[in-house]
Amino acid sequence: MATILAHIEINPGAETQWEAIMSDMVSQTFAHEEGVLRYEYFKGQSPLHYYCLLSFEDKWAFYLHQASEYHEGHDFESVLANVELEYLDPVKGACALPPTLNPGLPSDASDALRVTEATFPINLPAWWSGRA
After folding, report:
1. What is the CATH number of the domain that holds 30?
2. How far apart are CA 63 and CA 2, in angstroms?
3. pTM for this prediction
């Protein structure tokens, strides 16, 4: 499983366009993808700041999401100022989601999957080790 918190800052004046893109992304994702556990957007307290909580059954579902036609079809460059992805791991007994894992790529992985993994690597912090 892979759970991600995206910290998003958009360009001034892009709020309406950004929220329309996000509405379409959520609709398209749930209509066309399997393996999506959570995909939600939130406005932050600071102006122009948003958050997205994404959770997928495995990292392959996340990578397929990132490489989807509708994901690639939006003009993110015109609205985004900055995006930082933070991988999350649930606290046992305090979250219903399964742990974030980082299995290796299968030997027959496509070039697209290899590029997506290189672009969005899952680096599990050492301090998570041994903590359920």
Report:
1. 3.30.70.100
2. 10
3. 0.88
Q: How far apart are CA 128 and CA 99, in angstroms?
A: 10
Longest dimension (CA), the chain: 45
Residue 27 lies in a domain: yes
Note whether residue 50 is domain-resident.
yes
Residue 70 has pLDDT above 90, yes or no: no
> Per the structure, how many domains does the chain have?
1
Query: What separation, in Å, do the N-terminal and C-terminal C-alpha atoms of the chain show?
Result: 14
pLDDT tens across 81-125, in order? 999 999 999 998 899 988 898 999 889 988 888 898 899 898 889
Name the helix (H) or strand (E) containing 62.
Answer: helix 59-66
Query: Alpha-carbon distance 57 to 120, whole Å?
Result: 16
Within a 10 A sphere around the Cβ of 85, how many other Cβ atoms? 16
Contacts of residue 5, Cβ cutoff 8 Å, sequence gap at least 6: 51, 52, 53, 54, 85, 86, 88
